[in-house]
Specification:
By secondary structure, the protein is mainly alpha-helical. The chain has 6 helices and 3 strands, in the order H-H-E-H-H-E-E-H-H. A hairpin with a 7-residue loop joins strand 2 and strand 3.
């Protein structure tokens, strides 16, 4: 890849990352929650009960960061900690009824945002974009998973 193409790709990825963070922050603000909280709630909605280490791994954050995010959600009544049936020493995190309502509200807001943002795109253009974004994410993940820790 040429230096120009590398620079252009990195710049485009930075723009995408900023746009995604800004959209998520706007939606989280509308829901009165921190942006990071929505990531945890959405993860628990998709995966169901998980341990804290899985939250940290999936969100690519340090366990202490995940613990603070989850702690705030527990205090807010959106998440509960229960004893893990397979490892009684561990705690499992799961959504409460309020957490499920927040996840549904979050989904509705994201759906509306995406519908508005891509209203002028054809189904074919949208499908192509989805494929390309997945390919980009897979390419980056494949290298980052192979790289030795620093």
């Amino acid at each position: 890849m040429s230096d120009d193409a590398t620079t252009a790709l990195v710049t485009a990825l930075e723009r995408l990352s900023r746009a995604q963070r800004e959209a998520a922050a706007r939606i989280a603000g509308d829901l009165g929650r921190p942006r990071a909280a929505l990531g945890v709630v959405r993860l628990l909605r998709v995966r169901g009960p998980v341990q804290l280490c899985e939250v940290a791994d999936t969100l690519r954050v340090d366990a202490s960061v995940a613990s603070r995010q989850v702690g705030a959600l527990v205090e807010g009544g959106y998440v509960r900690r229960t004893v893990d049936e397979t490892d009684r020493r561990a705690r499992t995190l799961e959504l409460t009824d309020a957490g499920h309502r927040l996840a549904a509200q979050s989904d509705d807001r994201f759906d509306a945002f995406v519908a508005e943002a891509f209203a002028d795109w054809s189904a074919e253009d949208l499908a192509d974009a989805i494929d390309h974004v997945r390919d980009v994410a897979d390419a980056i993940s494949s290298v980052s998973q192979e790289a030795p820790p620093r």
